[in-house]
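note to self — DONT lose this again. spent like an hour looking for the file last time. sequence + predicted structure for the chain T wanted, 400 res
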Amino acid sequence: MEMSSYGWTYLSRDALRRAENQLSGAGEGVRDEIGFLIVHQRYADHFFPGTSVLHTRLRYVLFVPWIYQTLYEEGSSGRVQDSLEKAEIRLAGRLKHLRGAIGGFNFPRPTSQPASLSYWAALGAWGILRETDGRLPSRAQIHALLQSRHRKAKDDDGQALLRAELPFTTLPPRPDDWSSAGPTQFRLLSREAEFLQWQFADLCPNDAPGQKSLFAKLSAAPRTQADACWSPGIVEIAGDDGARLRRARHAASLAAVGRAVYAALVETLKEEVDRQTVSRKHRDNLAKVLEDHASMAGRLELGKLIEDTRTITATIPPVLYAVLETTLAWIADGANDPMVLRDVYERGECDRKQHRARLSRVFGASRRMEWDNDLHPGAEPLHYRWRQVSGLLDDLWDAA
């Protein structure tokens, strides 16, 4: 039996957009003061479309539409949102003994990040949720459809109106124990794995609609053990995306250096400007990060990075470009005193955080007073959701 190793704690719904930034770093509590996670998100979305750092187990992309199907069939006179919440709490109780159970730690209380919310984008990206009128429906639209389904709607002549169907593709049948109150499992049945492999087969990145994504290629490949998405076996499977993966690795290392520089700058200012006694945790860590990542970061071709991360509507913000460019030049020049980077990092942080910026010459002193350098996490490279993606692929491979 799998034992629970993690769950999901309370996050307000207003924090959903910040969840990626808060959870995307390799260490718990990583924040994105300068903007490096823009690079993370653009590369991750290209390689692994539809994925999120909130994902835990692959079978949730079936659990969620199955719940909606059940609500559609059963009907209810109450609020759909209440019925959905009860169904998700019930599912959390059935899965709470397993690794990756969303809401397992909260059970029997609801969680503010239920699976229907965390996996909704994946349902659309992976073709499980179909477009209506050229657009993917939102959860609110599905709830409205369910609500109207349970009303006695009639036309002007008193005839019953036709009911719209749920916009999900044809799904594998629900398992025999779906209505049971006992424990269930995350292990995919063979028919479920075959369905998902079919959905992934031609999955393309949004920025390259004619190209199979790395996620699609991996889902069709034999199990591959890798600590990072740029490991040699993964690069080989990536094919034409291999060069982009290598650039993503260089960018991941540059972000590690940048994060280490930022923390060292704040630590230095707190000691030398604010006259506060602090340890040398981040200044010492900067030396280690440079030893581990400076060479790899220095290989990054900034022009290629810009091409890789450009979308139809946006590119890397100028302030972040300046941080990346200046940090690369600093590494090439020997990576000595990080304080020479203070101005460009200050502009980068102030652009994102305004009066909350710790490096700000105007507001920084008060913000640094609240900053505990010993609690601030050590700098780590970007990982492009590989921990989550490899877990989803493991679930698929285990059923093969």
